[in-house]
Structures are given as structure tokens and as C-alpha cells.
Amino acid sequence: MRVPTAAITAGSLIGGWQLARRTGIRPLGGVVLAAGGVLAGREWARRTNPAVTGALVATYVVAFGLSHPLAKRIGSWPSVLAVSAVTAAASYAAADRRAAP
Fold first, then answer.
1. Is 47 contained in some domain?
2. Residues 33-53: pLDDT tens digits?
3. pTM of model > 0.85
4. Range of the domain at 20
């Protein structure tokens, strides 16, 4: 059974943020974020074409980047949940839905 990339991206964004927040060691959160990106990226490359893979990678990276200024406006939890939801939705629509049996 394959793990949907929507779950990987949302889980790594939320998990990376929580790990960095709870330990106070931001690079640990970055490791989780990078691992999730690599795992999801490999699946996107396998399931889609290079243009879609590139768009999904960009969505993941931009979501991470936007979560920081967004957190200043709406708070940390809402920000991380919002960017995770957008990234998961994009991953599902572009890659996971097609891969379903």
C-alpha cells in the first residue's frame, strides 16, 4: 500500500513545524520537511510528468515559505494548517487521485 503524497506533504509540514517548535532546534524541523519533500517528490515524478512534478515541488516549497508571514497575521497553528491543506489538496488533485486503484 502506498501512502498518498497528500498525507506525506501535510504530515511533513505539520510534523516538521511541531518538531522544531517543541525541541527549539529549527534544523530538525527542516530535516522532516526535506525528507517529506524528497519522498513526495519521488512519488510525484513516478506518477506524473516533469511539469506537474515541478509545480507540486514549487507548491510545497512556497507553502513552507508563506507559512511564516501568514503566521504573523493569523497565528502559527492556523497558518500551518492552511498551507498544509492547500499543499495536500494540490497533491491529491494532481497525483494521488490518478494513482488510486
1. yes
2. 999 999 999 999 999 999 999
3. yes
4. 5-95
Alpha helices per DSSP H over the chain: 5-23, 26-47, 50-74, 76-91, 97-99
Please indicate, yes or no, if residue 101 is contained in any of the structural domains: no
Please report whether residue 77 resides in a domain: yes
Rg, C-alpha atoms of the chain: 13
Tell me if 18 sits within 8 A of 38, measured CB to CB: no
> What phi and psi values does residue 73 have, to the nearest 5 degrees?
-90, -40
Spatial separation of the C-alpha atoms in residues 62 and 95, rounded to whole Å:
18
Contact 101, 67 (CB under 8 A): no
Instruction: Specify if 100 maps to a domain.
Output: no
Q: Is 24 left (phi over 0), alpha (psi -120 to 50) or beta?
A: left
